[in-house]
Amino acid sequence: MIKKTLFFLLVLLCAKSNAQHARVFANFSAYAHSDFENNSFAELGAGLEVKVHRFLKPEIGVSYFIGSLEDYSKKDALGNTLDLRTSKAYALNFNLTPKISLYSKEVNSGDVFIQILPRFNVSKISADRNYTVINQTKPSASVTTKETITEWQQSFGIGVGIDIVLSDKSYDSFSVNVYYNGVNMGKALTEVNHSGSRVNTETIGAGISYYLGFEKKKN
Q1: Domain of 46?
Q2: How does pLDDT run across 115-174, given as a tens digit for each residue?
């Protein structure tokens, strides 16, 4: 996986010198998962797109994942809370996307094109757990312990969506995509919670991206 990532980075850097234009982008995505609060976790990212050909626009980016599991507590027969566990996961993700864009030669404002986004990821994943044992006679004396697990991971994900051209004068566009997320924060969450049930965040999500071009289109 590392060799593949380095290879595509090399291709991207070599292509940049011959690229017709480059754009920066920012994106936000949400992924469905019933174990998390609000049944989802989120990703916020930014990066650079380089146009090699109208069909090939590689992207290099960085993003941040974050999500909190539903709180877990244990109660006695009288309904008193004996302990409380809260946990969350977060990941710093470096990604390379050799994006395939099904663009036509003539592009006008309002045109919509399909894009395919295979994504190679290298991620630093962390999971935190706060575990509190409730002192029934003196709640203020309850004891909380914190534990953190950190690991590095390589993964692959893929997305498909549409890119909407916003202007006849610039290269700005807006895209809406559906993703299969390959960044799995579940292993770290399972370890930090010492849980017998596994959490897996390789799941489906949706996101939006805004691309900002610095060049003006030629008349």
Answers
A1: 2-213
A2: 999 999 999 999 999 988 777 777 777 788 899 999 999 999 999 999 999 988 888 999
Q: How many domains does the chain have?
A: 1
Question: Could you tell me if residue 218 is inside a domain?
Answer: no
pTM higher than 0.90, yes or no? no
Q: Are 46 and 61 in contact (CB under 8 A)?
A: yes
CB 205 within 8 A of CB 182: no
CATH at residue 107: 2.40.160.20
